[in-house]
Amino acid sequence: MTGRQRSWWGWGWTDQALSDEECAAVAAGLPGLSGTPRPVPSLADLPLRGPRVAAPSSLAGCVSETPEERIRHTYGKAYRDVVRALSGDLAAAPDLVACPRAERDVVDVLDWASSAGIAVVPFGGGSSVVGGVEYRGDAYAGAVSLDLTMLDRVLEVDPVGRAARIQAGVLGPALEDQLRPAGLTLRHFPQSFEFSTLGGWLATRSGGHYATLLTHIDDLVESMRVVTPVGISESLRVPGSGAGPSPDRLFLGSEGTLGVITEAWMRLQDRPRFKASASVRFGSFDDAVAAVRAIAQAGLHPANCRLLDPGESALSGASSGSVLVLGVESGHAPVDARLAELVALAGDHGGRPGDVAGADSAAATWRSAFLRMPYVRDGLARMGAIVETFETACTWDRFPGLYRAVRAEVGAAIERVTGAPGTVNCRFTHVYPDGPAPYFTVLAAGRRGAEVAMWDEIKAAASEVLGRHGATITHHHAVGRDHRPGYDRQRPAPFAAALRAAKAALDPAGVLNPGVLLDPV
Amino acid sequence: MTGRQRSWWGWGWTDQALSDEECAAVAAGLPGLSGTPRPVPSLADLPLRGPRVAAPSSLAGCVSETPEERIRHTYGKAYRDVVRALSGDLAAAPDLVACPRAERDVVDVLDWASSAGIAVVPFGGGSSVVGGVEYRGDAYAGAVSLDLTMLDRVLEVDPVGRAARIQAGVLGPALEDQLRPAGLTLRHFPQSFEFSTLGGWLATRSGGHYATLLTHIDDLVESMRVVTPVGISESLRVPGSGAGPSPDRLFLGSEGTLGVITEAWMRLQDRPRFKASASVRFGSFDDAVAAVRAIAQAGLHPANCRLLDPGESALSGASSGSVLVLGVESGHAPVDARLAELVALAGDHGGRPGDVAGADSAAATWRSAFLRMPYVRDGLARMGAIVETFETACTWDRFPGLYRAVRAEVGAAIERVTGAPGTVNCRFTHVYPDGPAPYFTVLAAGRRGAEVAMWDEIKAAASEVLGRHGATITHHHAVGRDHRPGYDRQRPAPFAAALRAAKAALDPAGVLNPGVLLDPV
Q: CA-to-CA distance for B488 and B500, rounded, in angstroms?
């Protein structure tokens, strides 16, 4: 990996980005796009105002004010971030970037920022797609991006209890590398895995790519250590407790507004030794949904249970019709019987098995498209396409109505906004006994220079449909700043009052990630 | 069940209480106890001060001030409650008992209490063993026990998503009776099941008697409706969400200090159709612990996985040596192969299988003793015995040291306090991949009139050992008032500040269950 460079404007590695020719090729199927990709500006040419604040000399060793560092910490990786970066809009750049080398530096940054009235935006891998790492406004003396990726070590492994004490700034691959010698794994693989951190997963209640059982990072936490402006909160490391409301559950999902997570004891698992996967095809999407519900309620706990609707299936090249990708794994015993049971259950609902054993081709095709998708998204964005996703969760009884309404109403919004029809596809990323987590992909031709505004209007329509159908504003993308209106509608008012009070108690100066979850004080 | 009467001073039904002869018989094995049981006072003879407050006429229909109702709501069902009731100590009796017939009554009671400065103690089945339902002190104009058991209906069943909207005051058996016609079950069976309510389980983060996977009520919640003094908090009913810190997790474990839970959408399961159980005997307790750890980490999810140490095993009549009771069940597929796998895993660690199939005698003996135990406890209490339990959870690496220390130090405390050796036994009630939930039973001869003080001293020693060994002050008995010192030590200070702030926001007059979790304002 040495020498590989992260993209400052788009997803992942620069050497994985689409070439101009590839951009044009992926856009060829979408009418209304210009023939040439928007150029990627040179970092050195980008206009950037000077920093409005300076760090005290005690922090000089861990603070940078170089334009490159500031630009790299301006945005997350949402579609609207990519477009704004490509257009050279860097008004939201932080004044400084702090990279703590130890927890003590985090304490010092919060002390300084609290006393100087400077906004602090915690920054892990920077993969937010909801405006979670971008301070908006000018109510503070300045803004500091607090990059935690130097806190990247597994500090302690307990092989008896299968747990590890891990620094929050570690990226997914480095985390797994450090656990591998012990034969253990956190087994949490969100799509952003390569470019997101443990602390980011915890702060946003991340969902891994496993479809059932241990999907949310929430359930993998034994204890957390959080630096707040009023002191360090460290919960007791126990397998279970009924001692009052869970301290960890207050910080899980707090998105940097209540404190900065610096360490956590995480529950680990034995590395899987047995794996099997299969795909099942359905002529009817309704039948496929019924099959997935039966599977989710049968207690078989497949590792993967991803349903692609006909549009998503065609887009990923996996197949025509609806495709269900099933995967089973275990660190202890062969899983073939369980896979057969799952395929049989799907068969009861009209599913026709694909190739059951080993490397299933539809599953492999889909997985490769899955990992490639963010790079393709960037290529399409350069071509002027509107290409973004949103996700939710709802109970099974509400899904059919929600699916129809999203396709109809978001489709209508696309046509109203862009003047032409677009695509709205759906897959299930996670399934629960009581309902699925549908993930929608939107693809349409934008008008260059107006893409962000156009997307914002489409997204508002999408959020409105979700709210009206009793679906959550976000299953695993977090709230950030972009989901605030929908979140504010979803959140019970007394809980909002309690959260505001907790925030005031922990962050009296109101400097932590202002605008996320709550209005700035 | 018609005509059965609940005991006002002890556990459960009056017709299940031990006779005087049975009391003497169970105490026979314990030297130092008097030959005759303490008499049960007559309700009519008990001295009780008059109510200090009167309800407004608008609440007259749901408020009682009869001595019997007030006495029945004075205590929970801890050992120290039983002894105090038997001795006629009713100083803590509430002034009034309110029994809301609808949520509106709950709102009205909180409005009135907030404006009049009256403490409100939410009361479900009254099975608290930690002083959770007993207001202590005189800083309020009066105290009202808010009995929610008239809110006892399943309001709605969603068979598609397998969930139900349930009123919080329903007792366990009535809840299951209402779900049975739909073929569904909440499958949450704490030892107090017959005499505790859904709302109590939620407010205290109850653990059911299933040993693995879905043990805590927390994980069965889809959404909750909570009446707070500043409004009703109702969370969105979805299978999963990443939208900020979970509102439900703030109220779970809040023990009536932040609001009164009136309804919840609960996740249900198909009723089990296949069951199998077995017992396994071990010559060495350490081997048995190793076997249980291997089982907990193998992903086999037994419904029961109860390990009894030699003392507990002898006491329950199950066997000599250490006994592991294993149970497996499913609503979908036969479970015999899984049971065989579990027994084999135990065998790898030196376990000798008992009778594997069907009604295993050790398991049956133990289960019957389990359900009978609270009545026996009451009988022993009438004989002057000190008989109580405490429970915790810790990581696997800490368990051996904790077990030794608890037996040694609590044993020493018993000898110091009572002047004679007592018994300290242990079983595992729940096991997790990262550690067990050990449950300790203490039995010793007390001195009549001093039992509560003696127990308090023994309990303080126990709590001190738990804290020193990094074990939680409570796994499923909650905090209440009795666990406050240990809880205050366990709880991170910044979280305590956040909780106090949340409490002040939701309960500005500070009337909700004062003294539980937090000091009264």
A: 12
Interval B492-518 mean pLDDT? 98
Query: What is the rounded distance in angstroms from the CA atom of residue A409 to the CA atom of residue A442?
Result: 12
| Encoded amino acid at A11, one letter | W
pLDDT of B426 > 80? The answer is: yes
Whether the per-residue pLDDT at B245 is higher than 60: the answer is: yes
**Distance from C-alpha of A474 to C-alpha of B240, rounded to nearest angstrom:** 9
The whole-angstrom separation of Cα A271 and Cα A330 is 8
Q: What are phi and psi of B305, to 5 degrees?
A: -155, 70
Q: Find out whether A252 and B486 touch, Cβ atoms under 8 Å.
A: no
Position B198, amino acid: L
Longest alpha-carbon distance in chain A: 69
State ipTM. Answer: 0.96
DSSP code for B53: -
The verdict on A241 touching B (C-beta cutoff 8 Å) is yes
> What's the predicted TM-score (pTM) here?
0.96
The sign one gets for the Cα dihedral B20, B21, B23, B24 is: positive
Q: What are phi and psi of B174, to 5 degrees?
A: -70, -35
Nearest by Cα to B316 from B356, B279, B345: B279
Tokens standing for residue A292: 């997935």
B206 to chain A: nearest residue by CA? Answer: A242
Which residue among B432, B492, B505 places its CB closest to the CB of A247? B492
Residue of B nearest to A432 (CA): B239
Note whether B482 and B131 are within 8 A (CB): yes
For residue A275, what pLDDT is reported? 93
Helix then strand count (H, E) for chain A reads 15, 18
Q: Is the pLDDT of residue B358 over 50?
A: no
User: Please, which residues bridge with residue A265 across strands?
Assistant: A165, A223
Instruction: Please report which residue ranges of A11-66 form alpha helices under DSSP H.
Output: 20-27
Please tell me the distance in Å from A498's CA to the nearest CA on chain B: 4
